[in-house]
Amino acid sequence: MSPRNSPSPEYDLAVVLSHPIQYYSPIFRELAKRIRLRVFYCHDLKPEERLATGIGREFSWDVPLLDGYEWEYLRNVSSHPGVHSFFGCNAPDLFKILRAERYRSVMVGGWQLYAYCQAMIAAKRHGVKLLVRGDSQRPGGRRFWKRVAKRAVYSLAAAQIDAFLAVGQRAAEYYRYYGGKPEKIYFVPHCVDNRWWSERAESAQQRITALRSKWNLPAGPTTFLFVGRFIPMKRPVDLARAFLEARRSADLRLVYVGDGTLKSAVADVVRDSPDVSFVGFQNQSALPELYALGDALVLPSDAGETWGLVVNEAFASGVPAVVSDEVGSAPDLIDNGLTGLTFNGGDITALRDALLDFDRLKRTGFEFGTHLRLKINRYSVENAVVGICSAIST
């Protein structure tokens, strides 16, 4: 645990987040260079708890999550602690902390956890500026009365928020839908450490022959990558079916990187096809070399994929993407024909056609690199930090 200073200095920002997340840590490290920051985590997620996320195995990230900034774990008094249910994080000490210490602003990671609501109430009670950063999309598919009720409740919550930190276009639409005023919405993009990924991908390219041998992925076929959990939201079975149809018309290969509850269902569809590989779960340090071996990432998820940061990883590694139009990042990151392709989510025929269209585009010799760099440079840690600092100071 990072030690608490005493007496307490004045902090520019307190962050309340469910648990350490590998995509947030680079932002916190950069923020800590510019402002006085302290991050409060509501739950210490154990390796065995990751079984509940659908990954299907215990693991810990092999990149540092807690280096370079001040942090501490809050006391979680939930009877069923965890990060996947509303009452899984209950942190009553937030009221005491925000009363006793001096913070200009508090940033919470949404309003889907009880602890986030506690932080919001505590911030308003003690006159601290309240910032919310989330990646939700506008609701759809619910019954009319549920949508009306949810909008009424969320609009009341939104009225208490001083700044909405939107990770992309659909998040901004979501905030406006619930009453967020445009002048209170700040662009704080979803991002990865672009430099970390690009440097490792470039290093992998210099060892590409050895890596092809290591992973048994020969040059020649257009190689698509699926990187993530084998869970219904990510539609890995759809991809398997679409790939087998596309493979009848082109020389293609598909590599599944990950694990989860639907792995056996995917394996049943592909029936040990020699053109489909399963390399299992790979921790973050191993992913750049796999991206280096791929021609395109495929993310066929439904609207539950509120962003899809694997697309950021791929772009930073120089790899375009084929993405369902239901995925939250699609309107931000995918410029059709330049940084990748989109297709109608849930439509296996449309996904098959997108795979074939990408194969044809690749074989024309089109260079995606410049377009990917221009795109991913906007979705950077530096721009996220600028947005947060602007929200605090305005």
Describe the structure.
This protein is of the alpha/beta class and 394 residues long. The chain folds into two domains: 10-191 and 379-393, Rossmann fold; 194-377, Glycogen Phosphorylase B (Rossmann fold), CATH 3.40.50.2000. The chain contains 15 helices and 13 strands. It has helices spanning 25-31, 93-100, 114-125, 144-158, 169-177, 194-205, 208-215, 236-247, 263-270, 287-293, 309-316, 330-333, 348-363, 369-378, 381-393, and strands at residues 10-17, 37-41, 70-73, 102-108, 129-134, 163-166, 185-187, 222-227, 252-257, 276-280, 296-299, 321-324, 340-343. The strands form two sheets. Strands 3-2-1-4-5-6-7 form a seven-stranded parallel sheet, sandwiched between helices. The chain has a six-stranded parallel sheet with strand order 10-9-8-11-12-13, sandwiched between helices. Helix 1 packs across helix 15 (381-393) and helix 2 runs parallel beside helix 3. The chain is globular and about 65 Å long. It starts with 9 loop residues before the first strand and ends with a helix. The model is unreliable at 1-7 (pLDDT under 50).
